[in-house]
Write a structure and sequence with these properties.
Elements (H helix, E strand, L loop, with lengths): L1 H23 L1 H35 L5 H18 L3 H11 L1 H21 L7 H4 L11
């Protein structure tokens, strides 16, 4: 499933880079890709340190920094996307570095995870399926 997505995104990136290159020139296109990578790296650094600070504050209060850990994963993935040349990956990477869009993404993922775990929780199963204990006696000869 992931391979076709990588192929499609790569082809779209090449198509967009070629069209932008023909519209504004090859050098300008390369310069634009470099500028977006630099802006992304600055955002990556600031958002990474901000998330690390929030994580340390929660840990000092004795709370689990679960949301902040997910934010860290989203920031790392966004950084990888920003280092990949192309405008689609840069756009998605920049969205991952914006706190408001990152919060929406993490909330959606955690809601899906909670729904999945509730569906597969043995406590939510009917009573006849929950107790599989068979009582009996055992003798050793």
């Amino acid at each position: 499933m992931l391979f076709p997505i990588f192929v499609i995104i790569t082809l779209l990136e090449i198509y967009i880079l070629a069209n932008v290159g023909s519209a504004i020139g090859g050098f300008s296109t390369v310069l634009l890709v470099i500028i977006t990578a630099l802006i992304g790296s600055i955002l990556l650094k600031s958002q990474g340190f901000s998330t690390l600070k929030k994580m340390q504050e929660k840990t000092a209060k004795g709370q689990a920094p679960a949301f902040e850990m997910l934010e860290g994963v989203a920031i790392i993935i966004s950084g990888i996307l920003l280092l990949t040349p192309g405008f689609i990956t840069d756009f998605v990477g920049l969205l991952g570095l914006m706190p408001w869009s990152r919060k929406i993404l993490i909330d959606k993922i955690s809601n899906k995870t909670q729904q999945f775990s509730q569906r597969n929780n043995p406590k939510n199963q009917p009573q006849n399926q929950q107790n599989n204990t068979i009582e009996g006696e055992f003798w050793e000869d």
